[in-house]
Amino acid sequence: MNDTVLDIRLSPDLLPRDGRFGSGPSKVRQDCVEALAKAAPTFLGTSHRKPGVREVVARVREGLRDMYALPDGYEVLLGLGGATLFWDAATFGLIRDRSLHFVFGEFSSKFALAAARAPHLRRPVVVESDFGDHPEFTTDATCDTYALTHSETSTGVAMAVQRPVPAGDDSPIVVVDATSAAGGLRVDPHEFDVYYFSPQKCFGSDGGLWLALCSPAALSRIESIAADPDRWQPASLSLALALDNSRQNQTYNTPALATLFLLAQQVEWICAKGGIEWAASRCDAAAAAIFGWAETTSYTTPFVADPSRRSHTVATIDFDAAIDAAAVCRVLRANGIVDVEPYRKLGRNQMRVALFPNIDTEDVEILTRAVDHVVSVLSG
Q1: Staple partner for 151: which of 33, 201, 311, 344, CB 3.0–4.6 Å?
Q2: Of 272, 289, 324, at which residue does a domain stop?
């Protein structure tokens, strides 16, 4: 495509108030940035083991407990490295012997691969589906851990969080990757044992941190594996160390203070607005706008065919072959509408749009009109 497409200029009525639609890193609210700047002289550059930072960590942990109405005995853990590191930590400190993975995208497959490569674990059971759908629930009596993904960021597929096996003393634990779901999709804490995520999506912060909402069964699993003298764990991947430090409102090693602060601001903003129900309703409205447009527009189709399996935090929209989605994205980017390109490894002629709580539904509606205009110009 010739670079002259970049000369297409959108009129002001086709420009969202904020053009950031990335699926992570995501839009950060300006008032959070301003609050960080105001707090910077006494917060940034201070020790993460002293009250100033530990109080911010406490705000995050207490806020998440309130947001999800966590049952008694559940705790909020945090550590460094993001959800990618958490997969490795789980192979050391959560999976006792064998895991079952429901795989339907790039990120769910990476956790399965991490478990498969762990030499101290039995080879996992992997239940797969085509990308654009998710597998049906199944069980396997040889598995002590079930790995679910609430929203597959790469494909825009959502899978309900539910226990394949009723909870009990000897039941497998349910571990859920919620990186692009937490803070934007509804979930019942009784249906999971670990709900882990990074803060650079619905929580409008930066990456490099993982958080996990953990049930008593998960905490017991972490502690029992850590007590096994034959089960070695590197300190940086030890969930037992993360648990001990989280109870002190700190991390094992030095965190990015700005990430913690922005996260605390976002958690409290969502809680003040009405909690997870408010945030999920906001994402529902944005999803209705973009999927309604995609279903009624001649050249677009939702990638996820089943409406009940479409994520309301990440939308993937296919374009007809006659329309060059990459060219459309280039024009949008030249006009300040950024990060709507598809996931790089999916390899589809589509765009991917974040629908996180920070993103106004009106901006999503304007985006669809901007796409219509760009397609009209490029096709003319």
Answers
A1: 311
A2: 272
